[in-house]
Each structure stands twice: as structure tokens, then as C-alpha cells.
Structure prediction request, 1016 residues.
Amino acid sequence: MRNRIHLFLVIFCLAWNQVTAQSEGTLTFMNSLPQVVINNPAFIPKYKISIGLPGSSIMGFYANNAFSYNDMIRHVHDSVKADLLKLSAALKTQNYITQAAQVDLLRLGIRINSKLYVTLSSTTKIYNREMIPKDLIQVFVNGNTPFVGKTETLSPKVESFSLIETALGGSYQIDNKLTVGARLKYLNGLTNATTESSTLNLTTDKSTYALTASAGMDVRTSGIYNLTQSNYDLGSNIGKYFSNFGLAIDIGATYKILDRLTVGASLIDLGSIHWKNNTYGYSLDPAKANYTFQGVDLSKVLNGNSSYLNSLGDTLQNKFKIKEGTISAYNTPLPGKMYLSGMYAINKSFNVGAVFFTEKFRGRVSSSLTIGVNKHFGKLFSAAGSYSMVSNTYNNFGAGMSLNLSPIQLYIVGDNLLSASMVKDVNTFASQTKFFNVRLGLNFIIGDDKKAKREAKEKGAPNKENDPYQADEGDVIKRKKYKNYTPDKVRKR
Amino acid sequence: MKFIVGFWLFACILFACTFNDRDFQIKGVRANPTLALPLAFGDLSISDILKKSDSAQIKVKPDGLVYLTYDQALLSHDIRNLIDIPNIGNSIIQLVVPPGTYPANQNDIISNTSTQAVDMSISPEKLTEIAFKSGTLSYNAVLAPANANFNYAVRVAIPEFISGNGTSLSQDVSGSGAIQLSGYTFKGAAANKFTLQLTLIIKQNTTSTTIPVGTYLNTTISFAGMNFSYIKGFFGDQIANPPPQSIDIQAFGTSFQNGATISFAQPSINLDVVSDYGVPLTATFSKLEARKQDGTSIKVQTNPASPIAITAPVTLGTSATTPVVVTNVNQLLNFAPDQFYYQVSGHINAGQTSGNNFMADTSQMRVKLHIEIPMYGQASHILLADTMDVDLSDINQTTIDSAALKVLVTNQLPLDAKIQFILTDAKYVFIDSLLTASQTNIVVGSSVDNNGELQSPGVVETSFPLSLDKISKIFKAKKIIVRSKLNTSKNSSGAAVDVKFKAQYKIKLNLGLRITFKLSDNF
Prediction:
């Protein structure tokens, strides 16, 4: 047990070095929503049929691992002034700002039988991530003096893509304990900008202040360059934007360790996209792009080399001139995600649990941890509350609610929603937040799984009692409670 | 139902919050970045510091010691120009044509001969050998009275004029014409004189001819345009007076003026007089002095002293050198001249009445001046100054909060320098000095051993804060005069010692600027 605690602490510490990622921890607790399968394809929503129509569900995401708006400004009387020193103090070595959005074009979930649940979905996704080095901001705020005798890392990086994802997935209950799921995704990449490599280092010599710059860059884009051309007709070329194909897969499983404890694991977005439409690159050869400026060379000046200063500018321009042009097709990975979850059913309608999330993308690993509860208030209303440690912030109180007015289900879920309601106004929330996500919309839901359970019971299929992801509130757990435990024992628990 | 109410209540709380966009309208920004920037650098050797115009004269000895050399050769044709071969006017030689009737004859008949000694009138030279480079013998033979039926010729012969194949000049001519003398060499037993022989030749004739009594062949002979490729003999006691000559020296410029003292340890100045003339020659320097632009001068003392007997070559086509050493070199160099000035006259065969002299028409007397100044010695108060234009009008002065000048100098040269930056306006009107007196010791000379060799470099790493007042004056300035006062390193006890400047000694200089801006903007 002690070793496990140590292991947990190690993982916890490692994870929190860079905690910002496109996680939706609270969604995992919302097993009343068809969208719960997003985090683990082995999860089985409670409704037999669920349908999402174009635009009926949307998701927005923002994360900044370093600073909030409040870290950038100060109030001077009635006005707001930028406070660069304050910003500088808040910065991390690498500052990642991530924005993402999703819009459902179609979502269909059908329980085929008591063991099999299939989903079909199509979603438009947009993902942007900018990395701004602290040193880059510092140069503007404090100059290069703090770096005298050191090397500044100034190169920003950007990752951006938009795509349409069409996914066919299913979850299958192997036995009473194990459920597995998978989802195959067919991707149509629309636009992309990716930083294969980027370096821009500036060293200031301690004794002479000589500046040594070295740079390298390999930035690739698809479908963007043409949009910047004034005479480009997007309408007649829209078909080309669907020529970037990709495949990805999600896999997951849940396992009931104890009657009330179920753990889950999933790997999401394992795949890549092959970009070939309007591929355009920007590059800088690191072998060439380096130069040390020591000031004016007195020996040249004394020798009457009058063209020296002019040639200096030409030299710099030649060395650091970015080469741009059409490039060949290339591949980019998707941000791969992993969810590890554990859910414990306190009673028939109340679950507690934790979700550990990790994302790996372009060499960066980021994580978050969410603990939460889920409560079903009868058939009509389900709610979840959560607390997340994410994006280097520790004040993220999330919430989820679904109003199940079959055949319509209204829902909203987010990892920082409660925080928004805890502050006095939106301004305060917007100014302070570094992390926010929300998923909301409506689903069409038809039938709960009571009938299926009855059929399964009649056929002798393994029951799904105490499975928090499949629980029909008040039914399975109630049956189990009276089957194996005395009420007194239950109460003691 | 209560859950529905709760849901909508929560939604209302969430969405009913008012959003005030004024909190997100940033009205201004302020920053105080401090930049550390390199201004200038250099790995300067003594060659870089010396004037550019002297660069061709800067040389390095095998041990690396830098020295300045000045070589100048002044050519003189003045002695050759003393020798001139005058034209020889018309000599009329009359040959008697024997009278009578000449039958038709098959062969030429040699008739009367007339011989005449010709003096070339060369003085005071007594030439016994003249190789003609050019010259023309002109003739005009006229029969009197005329007789068209009489065929004749005249043979012109000069036994002392020898051609390249060893035969003497002898040509049959008639009427008028010319004989080119180039390729002939006069070789006479008697100086300046040769023998002219004219012989009547009666040419073959197919008919008989009658010559009356009193018939003569009158031949007119003249010489002109004679020049020599070489001559031998006695050239006489003569004096050539070429015009004055000068050699400019740029090395010292104004650096050693204004109170500078300098002492070179091993300088040398030599005058080599090279003569191609096979004749006793005495060079007399009527003037030999070092001069400054301000008009002052000092005399150059030599060994041997003027007049100097110049060694003659033994054979034609060779040269002989007579070295002349300047004995007051230190005095001259300490004088820091701008120019060497001299006037020399050449006296040949002084007091002689005979001799075996020779010269070619290309012979010269060359005076080669060779100055060698090893950069080995001691100096003080050498002033160097240079002016740079400055225009900071594009920069907003109010954005500068503070600045400091960073200096790193690693000096292997045995030379201290006090450097001051003088700010002036466009008309060189003084505004201010950038550094305080204590800040001017930017360059510390290396320490040297007793032989003047480098022991360890002088290192200065310091930073000079520039007050806002100074910064303000920099912005006002249009020119910056960089003035340096240089002194050679002293020994450990503070005494001046001779130091060496070697090519490998460098002064590594880095100038940097640390500047803090105060930037603000309101939107």
C-alpha cells in the first residue's frame, strides 16, 4: 500500500509539471449523455437510441498553462493598463495556449443488443496550440540584460488543424466484468499548420555583449497559403480541401474490479492525417542561419572598408532569409490522449470517481486530474460536480447537468463551470481563468435500457449491476443491494 | 420539478452575469527593457594603428618585430648627358679624273684615291671607342664638267669604323645618298679621330669615252645624328648637377607632434649610391636634410662624409655600389620628419687628364635611400585623433532612461592609452567630453621584460555609467572626436624601457552598451 502511495505521488508530481491539455474530465462522470463515449469508446450510454443533429452539440475549449488575463493587466484608476512585468513574472518557460472547438454534424448511438452498442458520428474539429517561450516575452519586457551570459530561447511554435471526423464505433460487453470498445475514425483534414522544428536562440556574451543568433525552422502548412492570395477562389476549389485523408482509432475498456468499483482506460485519437492539398512550407537552414554580431569591426573601419557596414546588413539578410515555397505532402499526428478512470458507486444513483488524463502531442506531454461525483435525480435530471487540477491551476470546479425530457435531452458540462458561478461576475471569471471548457447542446434520446436489461436477464446474460457507466438509476444497484447485502451492511458502508 | 427549477436557476446564474468589456480594453502599456548591445570590436595590431598610407612600408622581421622601411631610388642620367657627339659638317674632297679617251672596257677600274683625317670635335672627352647606336654619313658626288657617257663611282671607306662582322666601312656610291652608321663601332688609335678615304672607280662601259683635261669628281661628305650605345676613352673632368630630390615619409604624421617624445632603439638610414659609369666619380651632397612640414629641418650626417668617392664598376655593363651610412639616425627620427631632401652633384675624373673610362647610353647613377625603423623603443605623449560623424536624430532621446558603456580591452601591445571622446557640434565647437578624467584609462599596456618582450597583456574590463546629462549631449553632438594619448609601457619600477612591437601582439577591444529604455504608450 505504501508503495502504491509513493507511485501515486510520483505520477502526480510528474503530471503536474505541465498540466494543460484538451481534457474533459467532468464529461466522464456524465453517463447520462451519449457524448460520454468520447472519452472512452467502451462506455455504454444509458439510452437505447440517441441522435444528435447538425449543430445540436458544440464544445469550446481554452487552456493557458501560464497566465490569465489578470496576469497581464493592472487597473489604474478607471482604466486598464498592460502590466508586462506582472506578465513576465507569471510566465512559464514554455507557455502553451490552446483553443479548440467542436461542432457535431451527426451523432447516432444505438444499442444493438444487451452486449453491443454502436455509434456513428461526424464532427467538425478545430484545434490550435501556440507555444510562446518565456524568453521571447522577456526580451520585449526586460530586454536581453537578464540573459547576459546566457542563451535565450525565442522560437514560438504553432500547431493548428481543422478537420471533419467521421467515426464508427462500438462497445462490446465481453463478460460480467469486462467491456471493450473501439472507434475507427475517418478524417478529412481541412487546414493545417505544423511546426516540425523551430529554434531561435540568442546568446549575449557576458564580457562583450556580443550577440549570437542561431535559428532553424521547418513550418508546414496545408490549405492556408492559397487563402492568403487575393485572387484565390475558394468556392471553385473547395473540393481540394477534402483531399487530405487520415485515419485514427480510439480504443478503450472498462473493468469491474469490485461490484461497486469500475475502472476504465482508453486511448483516443491514435492516428495521423496525410496533408497534400496546397502544401506550403517555410524553412530556415540551421547550418546557415547563425551569426555573431560583435559590433562594428574596427579593423575593417581602420582599413577603410567603407562598404563593410552595408555588407553587414546584406549578410544578416541572407543568413536569416526564410525560404518559402511549395513542399511535398506530409503527415501530422493527432493529439493522442489517454484517459484512466475509476468510478465507485456509493449507491444506486450516486457515483464518485477520478479521471486521470494525459495528452501527448508534438513531443509535449500534458496531464490533468479530475475528481468528481455524479448524481441521478430520478429519470429527469442528472448532475455532476468535479474538481480538476489542470493547466497549472487548482481552482477548477466543474459541473455537468442534463435534463432528460425524452425524446429531448438538454445538457451542459464543463470542467470550470462551477468556478464561473462562484465569482461575482463574468469579468472576474474571464480575467482569472486559465482553463475552461464547455460542452452543451441537445440530444434526441429514445428509450432507456430497462427493456434491454430485462431481455438480458431473461437470456441469462451477465448483469451490469453497479456499473456506473451503465447504471439505470435505482434499478440495478437496488437489486444487487438486496441480493448480496443486508441493509445494515449497506448502511455501514 | 425541483430539479428542473434548480437546473434553470443555475443556468440563469451562469448566463445572467453581465459582461463589462471595459475591463478588457487595455488603454496603455509601459516597459523598461534593458538592452545589452555590442558597439564595436577589433583585433588590432600595430599595423592597423599605423597610418594606412604607410602600410606598404610595414614589414615584419623573422622574430615578429615590426619595422618600417622606406626605399626610394632616384635615377640620374646627368653624367651620361655630359657626353655628346657633335655633327661633322660638309667636307669636300676632290678627285682628279685622269684625262684621255677611255675605250670600252669590260671591268671596273680603280683610279685615284684621296685620304683625309677627320676630327669629331668631341671635347673634353677623348674617346677611343664609340659604338654607334645611330648616325648618318651623307655624300654627294658630282663630276665636273659633266659627262653623260662616263660611268663612275666613288668608294667611301673609313678603316676605324668596324662593323659587327669585323670589316671596316667601305661602300661604292655615286650621286648623292647616305650611309647609316648604326652597327659600326669607331675604334681609333687616336682619340676622337678617324680616316676618311675616297677612291674614284671607273665603271665598265660598252663605248669609248673621252675625258677632257681638268675634269674632277667633287664629293661632299658630312656626319649627323651620331649617338652611341657605349663609349670608351677619357670622359674629361666634368660635373653634373641634377635637380634636388625628396622622399616623403608618412609614418609619423602628426602623431609625434604636439609634445610627443619618441626614441627608437635600433633605427638605421642608409644611402646606397649605385653607379654604372666606369669613371671616377665623386658625389657631393650640397644638401642632405630631414624636413618637417612646418619648415624646420636638420642636417643628415653621413659616413663617409660628403664629398663621397663613388666606386666605379670594373667592366662595362656592371654596377658598383658605394654604401653611405647616416650617423645621426636617432636624432633624425626623434625629429619625426615628414621628408628627406637632398641635392647631389657628380664630379667625374676630378683633376684627371687621362683615363680609361666607359659608359653605356643606359648608364645611370642611382641614389637609393633605405630607412629601417624597428618598432622597438619608447615613446610618450603620442597623440592620435580621429573624427566620426554622429547623428542620433532618429532616436527619441526621452525614451532612454539610463545607459552605461562597457569596455573590455585585452592589450598585448606595450602601449597605454588614455582615450577621450569629445563631443562637438557640426562646426567642431566643443560640447563636452564623454568620460571623466579617471575614466579615460581604458587601455593598459602589457607588461614587458628587460628585453622589451611581452610578459602579460594589460586587461581592462569596466563599465562607465553615462548620466542623462551626458546622454543628452551625445544627442546634441554631430561629431565625436576620439582622441588617444599613448605612452609605451614602463617597467615594474615605473621607469621607461625600450619595448618591442611585434606583429603577433594584438589589442583586443570590445565596446558594448547597456541601455535602459522607458517605453510607454497609451491607446
User: Anything to note?
Assistant: The first strand of chain B starts at residue 26 and ends at 31.
